[in-house]
Amino acid sequence: MGTFLVRIDHLSESVGTGSLSAKCTVDQPYAQDQHENLTYRHRVGRARYLGGPLLENQAGLMEKLALKAITPTGSDLHSAMIDIAEEMAAWVQENAPLLTGALKTSGHPEVYDNGSKIYDRPPISARERG
């Protein structure tokens, strides 16, 4: 039993505790309307261009995290969350409606560990005037 408890303590130290989160913000004046309005008929792209792929890929995202939680050298959850944040930005590029080119390239991926920003890649396209 002692070996199990020692290993659990080691795992806890390696993985850490607290909150680890990834997000992707799309900061264009029309971004939320394009994302949420299901009545629009987009010729290119779709509504729910970020939320849809997130829900559709949730099992795969959890698997990516699980594979990085315990590695031979400890835990690599930070890099897994960075990859997920970048994947969310890629979903924006693939799925955002083509109202203007700026929406597709406006994904701003970030990762936070216990509220501290550990990754922040600016969007390719800055916010348009609105």
Biggest β-sheet: strands ordered side by side in the sheet: 1-2-3
Strand content: 5-15%
The gyration radius over C-alpha positions equals 18 Å
Name the helicity range: 40-55%
Bulk shape: elongated
List the helices and strands and how they pair.
Layout: H1 2-15, E1 20-26, H2 31-36, H3 51-56, H4 58-69, H5 77-95, H6 101-104, E2 107-113, E3 116-120
Antiparallel strand pairs: 1-2, 2-3
Helix pairs in contact: 4-5
Structural write-up:
The chain is of the alpha+beta class. It has one domain (29-120). The chain has six helices and three strands, in the order H-E-H-H-H-H-H-E-E. The protein has helices spanning 2-15, 31-36, 51-56, 58-69, 77-95, 101-104, and strands spanning 20-26, 107-113, 116-120. The chain has a three-stranded antiparallel beta sheet, with helices on one face. It is elongated, with a radius of gyration of 18 Å. The chain starts with a helix and ends in a 10-residue tail after the last strand.
